[in-house]
Amino acid sequence: QVQLVESGGGLVQAGDSLKLSCAVSGGTFSRFGMGWFRQAPGKERELVAALNRNGRNTYYLDSVKGRFTISRDNDKKTVYLTMNSLKPEDTAAYYCAAAPRVILLVVPTNPSDFDYWGQGTQVTVSS
Fold first, then answer.
1. Which residues, in sequence order, are bridge partners of residue 23?
2. For residue 98, what are the β-bridge partners?
């Protein structure tokens, strides 16, 4: 059974940085495309960043380009989201998700690509 566990969220001030981690157990991590989603109260879930199985191809939401970086360590079976220059509008619950059916070069971007989800970690950015 595939399990995803996020960590690294917290309360920070605008302009600060955070690094989220998502440890994956079960399955074959190197065969998963991975993504980070977020959902703020009253808003729809949105894909923030994603990367393909070897980490060489990425996708970013326009509003986080240049500030967030997604990366993965296949040996540690972990995906990261490094968030710099945080803004109050980045406040949300952040979820990592695994896409086991994508082929090597494809970056998963459709929520239906993702079969496994973590429980989420809260990020709160104060102004």
1. 5, 78
2. 34, 116
Q: From residue 38, give the alpha-carbon distance in Å to each of 26, 59, 119, 122.
A: 23, 14, 11, 9
How many helices (H) and strands (E) the chain has is answered by 0, 11
Average pLDDT, stretch 34-49? 97
pLDDT in tens, 69-107: 999 999 999 999 999 999 999 999 999 999 999 998 999
Vertex 2: Cα angle to 68 and 6 (nearest 5): 35
For every residue of 47-78, which 3-state class applies, written as one string? EEEEECCCCCCEEECHHHCCCEEEEEECCCCE
Looking only at the bridges linking them, the beta strands covering 10-13 and 121-126 are parallel
Rounded to whole angstroms, the Cα distance separating 100 from 92 reads 25
